[in-house]
Amino acid sequence: MNTKASRYKSVRGVCNWLNGPSGSLGALFHGSSEDLLNGMPRNSVDLIVTSPPYCMGKEYEHKDHDLQTFIESHKKLLPLAINALKDGGSLCWQVGFHVQSGVCTPLDFLVFQAMQAFPQMKLRNRIVWTFGHGLHCANRFSGRHETILWFTKGDHYDFDLDAVRVAQKYPGKRYSVGPKKGLPSGNPAGKNPTDVWDIPNVKAKHVEKTDHPCQFPVGIVQRLVRALTKPGDLVFDPFSGVASAGVGAVVEGRRYLGAEIDESYVDIAERRLTMALQGKLDYRPADRAIHVPNPNDQVVRRPPGFASAMETNIRALKTANPKHQPITLVTIKKKRVMPGHRTS
């Protein structure tokens, strides 16, 4: 297998890669996704996974783009993407919020609305991606989640739950009644990861951070790829950026094709894909547990003047009690229950 990412400027070159003998698992198209999709074969992609521009004036966006631009671009792109998607294939669209002057518009609402024009596309999950860090807001609650809309093309599709199970929270839980009484009640392989995924976003000190200002975590794509595709399947990202989706695909043995118009991002993507193919790229895998800080670390210790959790709660109670009625804090002691006894 070729361990160097392929790079093309022509749609013909991409099509030759798609239809040719197996070579590199990863390929990049330096050009617009619309141009590429217009030239790609129908029913050729197993999974489309992407995070499109939010049209909020980021450095890779036109400054005059707005919500209407987002809507119009999806009206053009979605029919082309669905045309390239195989029957039974999956489309995963990750978006957050368009924020203008403190007013939020949930972009997944707009994507779902646009998808209503394609009755063959069935929404299977609205996955909530939550993360612990980000900008702190002063006039509204700080945003700490975005969403992934998972659609399938038709009613028959691949979903491998066993490939993405996570550890049971209570592995020792047992059946209390019936013929299996006393036996473990959970699946030994783990539980369903649910539709709320806690995966750190890519910030300054993240192992995956590059020059791209809005990177997609590799771990999200890894989980989608494992659940929705088989080894050798083709994963396509129409807004490839620095190919985080590509890394998540090739490390799982899938083929990857990405389209990107910014040459500097294509350069980074090519390096990252090649390093991933060679097993040299550092990334945060999907199944890594969330970091729990050591309470003795300097950054965790509360400096003088910083409120404790108890003090913060008292301040909140006083704010909610404008007439300054006396506040009594009650500490409830746990009863010690002897074996065989019940509490009332």
Task: Provide a descriptive summary of the structure in words.
This protein is an alpha/beta fold and 344 residues long. It has a single domain (6-277), classed as Rossmann fold, CATH 3.40.50. It is 25% helix and 19% strand. The chain has helices spanning 11-19, 33-39, 67-84, 107-115, 218-228, 244-250, 263-277, 309-319; strands at residues 6-8, 26-30, 45-50, 85-95, 97-100, 103-106, 121-130, 145-153, 196-198, 234-237, 255-260. It has a nine-stranded mixed beta sheet with strand order 1-2-11-10-3-4-8-7-9, with helices on both faces. Strands 5-6 form a two-stranded antiparallel sheet. Strand 5 (97-100) and strand 6 form a beta hairpin. Helix 5 packs across helix 6 and helix 6 (244-250) runs parallel beside helix 7 (263-277). The mean pLDDT is 87.
Record the SSE blueprint.
Elements (H helix, E strand, L loop, with lengths): L5 E3 L2 H9 L6 E5 L2 H7 L5 E6 L16 H18 E11 L1 E4 L2 E4 H9 L5 E10 L14 E9 L42 E3 L19 H11 L5 E4 L6 H7 L4 E6 L2 H15 L31 H11 L25
Parallel strand pairs: 1-2, 2-11, 3-4, 3-10, 7-9, 10-11
Antiparallel strand pairs: 4-8, 5-6, 7-8
Helix pairs in contact: 2-3, 3-4, 5-6, 6-7
